[in-house]
Amino acid sequence: MKARSGANSHGYPDTMASAESGRPMKRGLKLVTITVGGQAFDYYQPGWWCDLSDPNDREGQLVDEDNQVARMARLTAESIARGEDFAPALIRAIRLRLDLTQAEAGRVFGVGPNAFDKYERGEITPSEPTKRLLKLALERPDLFKKPKKGGVPLPKAPDLSLIKRTLREARLDRLYGPLYRDRKKVA
């Protein structure tokens, strides 16, 4: 199992002695395997480890931030094991890719301001319409721009050619197409 070096953006020491054995520990990412529902799931766990490359040597030290990674990994593995399409880590990744806070994501996706917090903590799963929007955000993140203060960004004027094409493809243009023609003001 390959170890990866982790960025140390918090000013943590690179090395420290183990409180358990006194062995030297090095800060980094260790490939860890957890078992959920009879399935093995691997992820990289940040922390200080006596041996970053030996999967059987689990002696290490985690800080609160590291424990949050472990919790998210377990919640995500549980979701995957249940067959859910949108696990907590994926929902968080989509939100971060869109550069949205949890409250902003709630506004953009049309859910409550605390919904993304609950999705990411595994408390609730998104509704089917929200899952469809999350799938669209995976495929087309450009459609989910950060909202301007006070609302979700919408085009100022609808794209008339898109409206006409949609009416035509839905075979409704004969009935409703005239509503979108240029109109003269009536006195």
Structure write-up:
The protein has 187 residues and is of the alpha+beta class. It has 3 domains: 15-81, Ubiquitin-like (UB roll), CATH 3.10.20; 88-143, 434 Repressor (Amino-terminal Domain) (Orthogonal Bundle); 155-187, no CATH class. 36% of the residues lie in helices and 16% in strands. The protein contains 7 helices and 4 strands, in the order E-E-E-E-H-H-H-H-H-H-H. Strands 1-2-3-4 form a 4-stranded antiparallel beta sheet, with helices on one face. Strand 1 (15-17) and strand 2 (24-36) form a beta hairpin. The radius of gyration is 24 Å and the shape is elongated. 18% of the residues are buried.
How would you summarize the topology of this molecule?
Layout: E1 15-17, E2 24-36, E3 39-49, E4 60-61, H1 64-81, H2 88-97, H3 102-109, H4 115-120, H5 128-139, H6 160-169, H7 173-176
Antiparallel strand pairs: 1-2, 2-3, 3-4
Brief descriptors of the model:
187 residues, alpha+beta, Ubiquitin-like (UB roll), 434 Repressor (Amino-terminal Domain), elongated, disordered N terminus
